Amino acid sequence: MTLRLGDIVPDFEAPTTEGPIHFHEWAGKSWVVLFSHPKNYTPVCTTELGYTAKLKPEFEKRNVKAIGLSVDKLEDHHGWAKDIEETQGAALNFPLIADADKKVANLYDMIHPNASDTFTVRSVFVIDPNKKLRLSLTYPASTGRNFDEILRVIDSLQLTDGYKVATPVNWKNGEDVIIVPSVKDEEAHKLFPNGFKTIKPYLRTVPQPKG
Ligand code: BEZ
Fold it and tell me: Is the CB of 143 under 6 A from ligand 1?
């Protein structure tokens, strides 16, 4: 199934390292980062999962739950979790879906047969509290992801949901943002009474509103 931005993501039931879950119910009113990795007991995946565990306080600040997936068995997840803690200095603190029958992987199109017909690629889905897909990323097995970038996008999504702004190239939380083009100057003066900078009529920047 091809998932597009704005789609309601498919629901599923699956076993995880934290017990069986019903995905939509588990997500509740949180944002979710659902990500697949190719295989347990592999080096790049080990670093990704350790780093994601370390980011837990950052996820919590943003009301985000992380959940991983690979097409491995639950008992393998438990064994590998010990290695993650030992080598990365962080114990798994989010559920890992054991998708040995590839049910969820197929539902979310995480297997790209021309890359590998056996393992999932490195997919990332950022899902909002309305269960809508807000970001999707696909990385090859050989390239570990930048989870700081995923947090950065969530910061942008949460900010731009609340204000009529967009975030420029390489923006980071706290930096100036762009007033969306649909807002005319007259409205912009009301929305941003402390003023904004007009670089071109279509390129107006303003200090980041409270995020
Ligand atoms: C890894 O996680 O290290 C990995 C997994 C599959 C292919 C290449 C690397």
Answer: no
Average pLDDT over residues 60-78: 97
pTM to 2 decimals?
A: 0.97
Query: 159-197 in b/e burial notation, b at 16+ Cβ within 10 A?
Result: bbeebbbebeeebeeeeebbbeeebeeeebeeebeeebe
Q: Tell me which residues are annotated as active site.
A: 45
Count of residues making up the chain? 211
Domains of the chain listed by start with CATH number: 13-145 (3.40.30.10), 163-206 (3.30.1020.10)
Distance 117 CA to ligand 1 centre (A): 14
Is the shortest distance between the CB of 173 and ligand 1 below 6 Å?
A: no
Question: HSE on the CB side for 7, CA within 13 Å?
Answer: 12
pLDDT confidence of residue 54:
98
φ, ψ dihedrals at 16, nearest 5°:
-135, 170
Q: Is 43 in the pocket of ligand 1 (CB under 6 A)?
A: yes
